[in-house]
């Protein structure tokens, strides 16, 4: 690898780690907010919750210019949603047994995977590619 080309993988620096932690916390907050909003006015609350999560996942991907930028808030979202789905000893839980709750759980996971898959990945410079020769 020549010293003139930048590496395709960014090294872990303290600032980058801090951004990942902040995105993880933002994902947890989005999971909590979405869990509370998705039950209100069935299609509208669910769409609002999923669009908010999608915006955060895509924004994290664009901010860090990597797929890991979408995975950090996705992991925080998933952890929060899993914590909220477990029933307590009193019998209370946030998610009701209905179509909207299942669509939120599965839709949020699908949105996180889509944003991580389609995340912005830097392309190699033109000198490293073959142009039909």
UniProtKB/TrEMBL annotation:
It comes from the Bacteria. Keywords: Membrane, Transmembrane, Transmembrane helix. The chain crosses the membrane at residues 40-57, 93-121. This is Integral membrane protein. The lineage of its organism: Bacteria, Bacillati, Actinomycetota, Actinomycetes, Kitasatosporales.
């Amino acid at each position: 690898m020549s010293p003139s080309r930048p590496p395709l993988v960014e090294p872990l620096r303290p600032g980058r780690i801090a951004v990942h932690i902040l995105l993880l916390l933002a994902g947890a907050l989005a999971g909590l907010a979405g869990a509370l909003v998705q039950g209100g006015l069935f299609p509208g609350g669910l769409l609002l919750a999923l669009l908010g999560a999608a915006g955060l996942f895509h924004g994290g991907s664009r901010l860090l210019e990597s797929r890991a930028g979408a995975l950090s808030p996705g992991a925080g979202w998933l952890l929060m949603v899993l914590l909220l789905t477990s029933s307590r000893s009193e019998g209370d839980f946030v998610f009701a047994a209905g179509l909207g709750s299942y669509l939120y759980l599965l839709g949020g996971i699908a949105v996180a995977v889509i944003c991580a898959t389609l995340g912005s990945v830097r392309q190699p410079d033109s000198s490293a590619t073959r142009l039909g020769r």
